Queue: 4 jobs
Job 1
Amino acid sequence: MEVEKLIQVVLRLGERRVYVYEGEEEIASYPVAVG
């Protein structure tokens, strides 16, 4: 049986971070450079 999971990548420029969500749960965040 195959289960599909929703993965989202959210870039928040004001925070200079990118967030990775699996469904509603944040599973990772990383600092990013803007410029």
Job 2
Amino acid sequence: MDNARTIALTLKQEPPMQDTRAMLESHLDTIPMVKAMQVAIGDIEPTRLQLTAPLSVNLNDKGCAFGGSLVSLMTLAGWALVTARLHDAGFAETEVFVADSEVKYKAPLWDDLIAEVVAAEGESLEDFVAAFAQKGKARITVEARVPLPDGGVATSMRARYAAFAKR
């Protein structure tokens, strides 16, 4: 096999998820609010990511989950999914920002927070990474939710993220 083909195949191979987890943890550890919320990384899959936080440090005055914590956890989950996919594609030097978001608070949450995020319907993480590879910048819309223990939804968010190559 020639060197060019070997390099191309190497770039397409996904790094082990523990590398992705370690990279995300190192970024999240630098954010004071993340420490205060006691955010932890849950499941990481190629098309889905989960962040968790205990209710005990994310309470409002009513004893249920604080709305600011809910939206913060979903926003961080979206950032983490986009950042992880770029990292896995070999783009370690990127800046990812939330461009805009819409949040819906549907029901109080009286349990630990679990934010789940995926690409929005009609969006593709693969197309997003391909656009980034071609242009050095890209946008993607994601959908996040914090489920209730009974299977309902406490909070949902639709957000657009922008990624740029670091200069």
Job 3
Amino acid sequence: MTGFHPKTDFLFNVQNTFAHGSGRLDVVQVFGLILLVVAPVVILSALWYYRRFLWFLLVRSFTRLVFFRRQGVIENYLVSRGVVVEVILLEEGRLGRQLCYARIESVFGGRMELQVVKADPTRLDLKGRRVICFVKQFSLSGKKFNSFVTYVRDFERKGTVLKGVHLLTPMRYRFTIRRKHVRKKINRPDVVRVKVWDIAKRRNFTSRRPDIYTVSDPSRYQGRPFLTVGNISPGGIRLFVHNPAKRLPLLAINEPLVMRVSIKDPATRQFFFVTVIGTIRSRNSKEKGVLGLGIQFTSQGESMGDGSGRIQWKRVVDGVPALERFLAKFSK
């Protein structure tokens, strides 16, 4: 009998503990307090993370309501002309990697459908990514336009090959100056030399004769194609093609070319050169028999260093750093 009472007291205490349900009440209260604190933080974090996209949707709704007529005229022009756009990722407000060239097929219900013409391989998840699209400059009511900023609504991809892109219609269409560097008018043939190859020769161009190049005495090349330089910057070059012929590489907008640019150092009198891929951004006829090309440097070639002579191409965004450092000498 002496051991019976302690056991009875212990069981009585256990029974009382579970009978009142105080433990369950404490858990509900704690959980409620956590929700009161955590939920606002999560909501505020989500709003901050998507602030740019939410602002885009808000302003887009307003601008399309107020300027729907002008927006509609621009979009009809882009669709009816089958305008090709260059789609580039925006990363922290700066130009990132190029995604593709695509033709605008339709604009309906706030969505812009693009047919991909040419694309770089990518495994990126593009949905919801911010992009800038460049088009060939056009004018409307005295205003110039050549770009717009928007978001990727959806995309189609097979493996790493981009097949289709759907964009949200933008807040507005605008004119963007793409040139980020001051071009230097270094156009003497004894100071700057340029050789150009068709992009198809990029793997073995070093062992091939250039398709067209600058010459020291243009008077000896009457009737034959040759190049002269208008100006140059770390981001691009202005070239003039004299006596263009059919045998030359395709000299159309958005076509890439392999280029070797050599510039004489004013101090050492030695030539410094860079190998680049340049993409034609503008094209016009300066005079009869002369074609002007505005070319942006999009990739830089570097030797692989294994003795094979092969070139490795690396994309450049804000110009060629080595060329920028070298051109600074001409400012001194």
Job 4
Amino acid sequence: NSGGRQMPGHFGQKKNRIVTVSSPVTTQVPHAVGIALAGKMQGEDFVTFTTFGEGSSNQGDFHEGANFAGVHKLPVILMCENNKYAISVPIEKQLACEKVSDRAIGYGMPGVTVDGNDPLAVYAAVKEAADRGRRGEGPSLIETVSYRLTPHSSDDDDRAYRSREEVEEAKKLDSIIIFDEYLREVGLLTDQSLEE
């Protein structure tokens, strides 16, 4: 029994409008859509942003929230973090379409897929979606394709469904490494600045 407490990674901060995520998967989507609706009804100028995994994009809460957001042209960004596994289920066994972002058309919103390991590509997609939302053009679905480098949880033995070689190859594309290389290339990061 949790005693009514959330998991430690589920935090919020009222001052900055960060709503705590509810532990049941995907429930954050209708929550974010509801917040976007409230803001629109009150004439407030903000865009709601929420994230979820590709496994969650198969849940009813995702579809209901996305549909409601599309019908009412709500300023909300739905970001799917596609790490290729819903716990142990590979993406090929989760989708009838090629990409999660392909689902967006059914809800009357644009859907884009970007390299989730490229922070600049993710930033550009989020900025474009936020600008759309602020202009009153409705919601956006962004799929960021990445890879889960660790087991799903401490109970998950990921060796049962993926090889060590697969994980090691994915580690070479870690977004922290990629962004480090970019910052060094443009002269914003050096070994000396890291030591300081």
